[in-house]
Each structure stands twice: as structure tokens, then as C-alpha cells.
Design goal:
- It comes from Streptomyces bacillaris.
- With 330 residues, this protein is mainly beta.
- Helix content is 9%, strand content 32%.
- The strands form 3 sheets. Strands 1, 2, 3, 5, 6, 9, 15, 16, 17, 18, 19 and 20 form a 12-stranded mixed β-sheet that branches. Strands 10, 11, 12, 13 and 14 form a 5-stranded antiparallel β-sheet that branches. Strands 4-8-7 form a 3-stranded antiparallel β-sheet, with no helix packed on it.
- The two termini are 35 Å apart.
Length: 330
């Protein structure tokens, strides 16, 4: 079931007047301010049983990244259709999870929000200190999150920004009120922050009607719709829809072949958390305009952009609209 997208009221901004006052009055005002600051934990968020990490303010960040659930009980997701870039990555037990990146606009509600993974930290190094919203993380991963060049905003940092939807069971019902975190969308496309651009398709390519990427326990299918000029998305054999019931689609899809290896982390059921290597090089397929183009990808370092080129080294541009990048194990 979907979550109603009623825009929450903006919190009122208090104006502090500073007339001449006695020392006693000033001390009293400071005490009242401290008490008010300590009463912000009643926002209704219930963090997952995994721990959460404090972080910075997010001021001036170019993008907001949100870790989003992608199993059956989490669908349809809310706000996913407004993301500039969506990454599909493999997690425990061969399932998939999404990392949605916003910059041109941010919907009022996004979710369901789930926990971060080690893969996210390397992936997000491509952006200039992004804000990362997530439900929590394993306690052993928290030091790495705290040291990463990003601003982490889990429920422990911004409790009033999260709420539990009544229509779904936990943990598939935690949602983010994006207006209540310290992030303001700059209005630019997130693909620009990745060093990518919109432009004409390269020459060549071959006609493509459908492309499926399979994980051990999940699959994502992209089917071309000439009428919509979008790759319509299906997940695990069912059409993916927005919370309003519309088909979810992408203008460009990049299937990036990467190394997926075991990490040093696992879940409570004993499943290992895979780590997706996004630094390096390899092959890819770029799907746009009903055609597929063979490509190469290269990212020489964690703080470098990922370049997508034709086999002869020409830059590949994107069709204007949402970009989905799926990491396929080679």
C-alpha cells in the first residue's frame, strides 16, 4: 500500500529579539533555549534495531542520497520517481536495494528508508560531500560512516524527519520528510555532479526491446516504451509503480559490470553482505532511445568520477530524464 503524499507543514521559524536586559534575564533565556533544544526527540520515528550514526550539517551539499528498501512489502516506493539517479545494488541473500539521489527536486516524502551498506560509502565518493539519509547501520560500520566525506542524517540525528507509516509492517514503513533535514536542492541535475551530461546518442548501437539484470534472489527488467520514451521498470516480474500508481521509468539505463565480493559484514541470519567494487574499470551497456550501446567504464580512484565511453573512447551522453545504474556481477 502507498503512503499519502500530504506535504507536512513547514515548522515555524522563531525570531529572537535581543532588547537590553539584565544578566539574570539573559541567563534565563539561554536556559529556555537549551531546554527547547533537548525536546526534539518526539518526531514519531522508530529507528531500526541497527545503530545510527551522528554526522555533520549538510549545508551546501549538492545531492541528497536516500537508501531505499526494495523487497515486495516495500513496494510501491514513495518519491522514487523524482530521483535524478537510482542505483540498484546487491545486498544480503542476493536481494536488491536502491540508493536514490536527488538534486533537481526533492519530494516531500521518500521511502521506505533502510540501512546503509559499505558499498554506499565508496559509491558516494563520486559526489562532493553528499547528504545520506538512512535508517541505521551495523555498529562495526559506524566508524567508517563517521569518517566518510558525507553528512549522515539517520533518525538519531534528525528524529523529527522520520515517521512510521501505519499501512505497512516494520521495517518496511520508515519514511523521510525531506524538508526536515538540513538539505536544500540546488536545482541542478545530479548527473552533472557525476561528470555526466545529457546529449545526442552515439552512432551505432542495436535495437533493444528489453533487458533483465539478475541477482541471486532478485531481478530488474527494463522494457522500452516508444510512446513514453522511457524504459519501463519491472521488479521481480511485477511492474514497478509510483505511489500514485503510475509506471516507473528511466530515460537511460546503464548496466555496469562490476566485481561483487564478500565483505567483512553480515546480517543476523548469517548472510554475508556483498561489497560492490565501483572503483576500477570494465564493460557496460548503455540503454537509451530503444537501443543498447556497448561501453567501457573507468573510475581510477574513489574520489574520481566514473566515465562511460564507447569502445573507441568517445564519451557517451545520456537521454534527458532519470538515470538508473544497475551493478551486475561479472
Amino acid at each position: 500500500m502507498s503512503v499519502a503524499l500530504r506535504r507536512p507543514a513547514r515548522p515555524r521559524t522563531s525570531v529572537i529579539h535581543r532588547p537590553k536586559a539584565s544578566l539574570t534575564a539573559l541567563i534565563a533565556a539561554l536556559l529556555l533555549a537549551l531546554l527547547a533544544a533537548g525536546c526534539t526527540g518526539g518526531g514519531g520515528a522508530e529507528p531500526e534495531s541497527e545503530s545510527s550514526s551522528p554526522s555533520g550539517t549538510g549545508a551546501g551539499a549538492k545531492v541528497l542520497a536516500v537508501k531505499i528498501d526494495n523487497v515486495g512489502p516495500a513496494r510501491p516506493q514513495t518519491g522514487l520517481d523524482r530521483a535524478d539517479v537510482v542505483y540498484v545494488e546487491q545486498v544480503e541473500a542476493g536481494l536488491s536495494r536502491l540508493l536514490a539521489v536527488y538534486s533537481s527536486e526533492v519530494p516531500p516524502v521518500i521511502g521506505p528508508v533502510r540501512s546503509a551498506r559499505e558499498t554506499d560509502l565508496e559509491l558516494l565518493r563520486q559526489f562532493d560531500r553528499p547528504v545520506l539519509a538512512f535508517s541505521g547501520a551495523q555498529s562495526r560500520l559506524l566508524p567508517a560512516i563517521e569518517q566518510a566525506p558525507l553528512d549522515a542524517v539517520p533518525p538519531s540525528v534528525a528524529p523529527r524527519a522520520y515517521f512510521r507509516g501505519p499501512e505497512r509492517p516494520a521495517p518496511h514503513n520508515l519514511y523521510l520528510r525531506a524538508e526536515r533535514i538540513p538539505y536544500v536542492a540546488p536545482g541542478s541535475q545530479a548527473v552533472e555532479a557525476l561528470g555526466l551530461r545529457f546529449g545526442p546518442a552515439p552512432s551505432g548501437g542495436s535495437a533493444e526491446e528489453s533487458r533483465t539484470v539478475r541477482f541471486p534472489s532478485a531481478r530488474t527488467t527494463f522494457t522500452w516504451s516508444a510512446e513514453r520514451e522511457r524504459w519501463l521498470i519491472s521488479m521481480d516480474g511485477s511492474p514497478a509503480r509510483t505511489s500514485e500508481g503510475e509506471r516507473l521509468g528511466a530515460a537511460t539505463v546503464i548496466v555496469q559490470e562490476v566485481t561483487v565480493r564478500p565483505s567483512s559484514f553480515g546480517d543476523r541470519s548469517g548472510n554475508n553482505t556483498p561489497f560492490t567494487e565501483t572503483v576500477g574499470s570494465g564493460t557496460a551497456q548503455v540503454l537509451r532511445d530503444g537501443r543498447t550501446y556497448e561501453a567501457r567504464w573507468s573510475r581510477p580512484a574513489a574520489d574520481a568520477d566514473t566515465r562511460f565511453t564507447t569502445p573507441d573512447g568517445q564519451r557517451i551522453d545520456l537521454a534527458e530524464g532519470p538515470l538508473w545504474i544497475v551493478y551486475e556481477a561479472r
